[in-house]
Amino acid sequence: xxxxxxxxxxxxxSLRGYLAYDDQKLGKRPGVLVMPEAFGLxxxxxxxxxxxxxxxxxxxxxxxxxDGLVLDDLQEAIKHATPLFTDPAxxxxxxxxxxxxxxxxxxxxxxxxxxxGFCMGGTLSLEAAREGAPLKGVVTFHSGxxxxxxxxxxxxxxxxxINHGADDPLVPVAQVNAFAEEMTRAGIDWQIISxxxxxxxxxxxxxxxxxxxxxxxxxxxxxxxxxxxxxxxEEIFAA
Length: 239
Prior knowledge:
There is one protein chain. The protein has a single domain, classed as Alpha/Beta hydrolase fold, catalytic domain (Rossmann fold, 3-Layer(aba) Sandwich). It is of the alpha/beta class. β5, α4 and β6 form a beta-alpha-beta unit. The radius of gyration is 16 Å and the shape is globular. The two termini are 24 Å apart. Helices cover 34% and strands 24% of the residues.
C-alpha cells in the first residue's frame, strides 16, 4: 500500500492531507475523501484512510485546519472548529479543496467520488454536498447535521447515509428529524441508521479519554456502521 502526505492550499491556508491506495492495483478506481473529527487529521482518520485503501479505493484524509494540526484538548478543538461551523462558505471551500486533490490523482476515477466524515468531518462532507460537489455519496458517523444553508433540489447530487448514535447528546433527535425533513424536501436519496447505546464519537477507540460523559467509543456500533458503509459503497460505485 502506498501512503504519502500531500501539501495543498485553500486560498492562503497551507494544508497537509494523507493519501493511501493499493499501488499494486491497475486502473482507475473510486476515490473517497475522509474528513476527520474536530481534533484534526490524526491517527483515527488516517487509520480509516488506510482501511479504505485496503478495500480497493483511493482514500485521502483532508486537513481541516492547516499545517496538519492535530489537537488533544476538547476546548482547543472547539475553538479551532468554530470558524468552520459558523461559516458555511468556508466549511464548503475547505472540504472542496481536499476533494479537488483527491479527484486529481491519476489512480482516481473522478466520476466516482464519495466523502465520509466523523463528527465535524461529517458536517463538512454534508456542506460540500449541499454546495453541489460532484459526489456519488456521503457517509457520516456521529456528525452534526444542522446547517445555515439547507440543501436545494437539483444541487445536492449525492446519496446520503447517516450513522447516528441514539444516545448522542450533542446531536439531539430534533436535529436528526430536521435533517430528514431537509433531505426529503430537496428530493435526496437518504437513509439514517440510529444505533442504540451509542454516544458521540462511537467510532473512535480513544474517545473515552476526552473525559466527557457524552463522548464514548462503542465497539458494536463502530463495526455495524462500517458494514453499512461497505454496503453503501457497493451500491453507489456499481459499474
